[in-house]
Amino acid sequence: MLRYLGNRLWQSALTLLLASVVVFGGVRALPGDPATTMAGEEADPATVAAVRAELGLDQPLVVQYGKFLTSALTGDFGDSVRTGTPVADLIGATLPVTVQLALYAMAIAVLLGTTGGVLAAVFRGRWPEWAANAFSLTALSVPTFWLGILAVLYLAVHLGWFPASGYVSPLDDPLRGLHHLTLPALILGLAHSAVVQRQTRGSMVGTLTADFVRTARAKGLGGRAVVFRYGLRNSLVVVVTVVGLELGGLIGGAVVTERIFTLPGVGKLTLDAVFTRDYPVVQAVVLVITGAYIVINLLVDVLYTLIDPRIRVSGGTR
Amino acid sequence: MTTATTQEPLTPGGTTTAPAVHGRSRGRVPRRLLRDPMGVAGAVLLLIVLVAGVFAPWLAPYPPTEVHFRTPFQQPATVGFALGTDDLGRDILSRVLHGARASLQVGALAVLLAVAVGVPLGLLAGYWRWLDALVSRLADLMLAFPFLILAVGLAAINGGGLANAAVAIGIAHIPAMIRVVRAETLRLADADFVLAAHAMDAGPVRVLGRHVLPNALPAIIVQATVIMPAAVLGEAVLSFLGLGIQPPDPSLGIMLSDAQNYLMRTPWPGVFPGIAIALICLGFNLFGDALRDALDPRTKPSGGRR
Q1: Where do the domains of chain B lie, and which CATH numbers do they carry?
Q2: Which residues are listed as membrane-spanning (chain B) (predicted)?
């Protein structure tokens, strides 16, 4: 177990390191010279050179990368070109919104997905399976952001059930905070619930037709016990896997959802930064999100081995 | 040596798991497809979508960017404007048709990119074990970048556009393609006909090109039907955010983004592009599912119990 953990840990660190190289290189590949931009287009070469030296851009790339990496490790991502605020502060202010949204959406996706998947597997060939299939196909095909726009129009503006936009911190008012996030999270979670449902169904069908389940049934074990004790428990690995795999999509979806519901999250910060060419912010956001994604995937992998010890063996030696 | 993140799909009915195709006689797959009502529905829908997209310039009554200032916000089923007009009086039907065409172009380019990079890498990784570690590592690294963040980064460098969207979506689907082809190659490496080819002194190019690749083709096609709807949705999302196709070029995502501004007053400019996206994706999803079932000898043609 420890050896497996160690392996996964250094592999994650390596991936993160490579990601930082890609981010660093990508920002350097951008058109335009930051020193010229900061000094102004009309500045004389001496001023530009001074600014370049101040920014450390006259040093070799390797040295620059080293500096970038060491300051990033201490949480220092420089200042936003647009507002002058430290990038770390901007991320600190917006990240909680996105994390809440993502967790809430994932909870909805897992709840809807496992319920639908279990029903579809248990009632194979009957109407619950058809309903579940129709739901998942629709949820996978309909663009969620379009659904979001329509939901704002009808559920929020027309019926007034939910607030159409805005964010309330749960620290100020937990109930209102939850209420504000419900519609965005539902919209965001819907597409992912379809994926969870399909995988759960596939896994449940596989388990329920397995020999050991037939044995258990032959020994007189009731239907409900078989479904929950054998089927669902074995499907848990799948659910955890899908949750891990879907997180990337969820982060991407959060960008769109935040835009539709005007939530002040990381997604909005990223988009604003891209459109105003605020490169320090873009660089930091990409690195932080990638890092978070890698860490979450690491946690998911560790979680598997706790749920299903067999994975440790095959994962470590293959 | 691969890691836990490169585990094979754990589910028997996994969405991207390649079915075993050994011993599949020719003609059985189309027949199984035709017997599956979902597959038929998907194929018909796909045919309509493809015809609409390919022939959009001839089918559309107006050029997609033609402005009719005197007739903004026409209701659907108005004479001359079957689906009405938007705020600038542009014909919605023409824009939806051209937008669908752009979506399909992005999808085709993305599939091309994923195939061009993913298939050779998957074949090599499956064939030479020493390359496997390197390629799998690369796939892991690419998977570590969430797709939209990748697209945002690319847009920051390239400034958006159809090609930007296609490249971002294509890159995002390379790792999955590598894994599918790698798994197929590993599976086929022990097949009798591959062993026979080895015995007859066939080189790696011949073995991979003549024996492994044709047998891996169904899995690659199924994977392409997974990429297409994802690409269509991805293009819509990117263009909606302003990172994909740039106005005034027609895009379903841009139409939705525009429509959001006056949705309270006139909803239909925002309804039809959404329906178009949904229909395109539904076509690919239905057809892809049916194709996977048809290729999978474990499922019965009727789609009933296994």
Answers
A1: 22-295 (1.10.3720.10)
A2: 38-60, 104-126, 138-157, 163-181, 216-246, 266-288
- pTM score over 0.90: no
How far is B65 from chain A, CA to nearest CA, in Å?
Answer: 22
Number of domain units in chain A:
2
CA–CA separation, A196 and A214 (whole Å): 25
Question: Measured between CB atoms, does B146 come within 8 Å of chain A?
Answer: yes
Chain A residues inside the 8 Å CB shell of B285: 137, 140-141
Q: How does pLDDT run across A209-252, given as a tens digit for each residue? A: 777 777 877 777 777 777 777 777 777 777 777 777 777 678 77
ipTM of the complex: 0.73
Range scoring the smallest mean pLDDT among A45-59, B155-169, B205-219: A45-59
**Exposed (0-12), middle (13-18) or buried (19+): which is B70, by Cβ within 10 Å?**
exposed
Residue A315, domain member (yes or no): no
Whether A298 and A226 map to the same domain: the answer is yes
Do residues A130 and A184 both lie within one domain?
A: yes
DSSP reduced 3-state for B78: strand
Q: Which of A73, A105, A130 is the last residue of a domain?
A: A73
Answer whether A238 sits within 8 Å of B11, measured CB to CB. Answer: yes
Asked if B106 has any chain A CB less than 8 Å from its own CB, the reply is no
Nearest CA in chain B to A135: B282
Min distance A218 CA to chain B CA atoms (Å): 19
Residue A77: the pLDDT is: 77
Rounded to the nearest angstrom, the gap between the alpha carbon of residue B3 and the centroid of all alpha carbons in its chain is 27
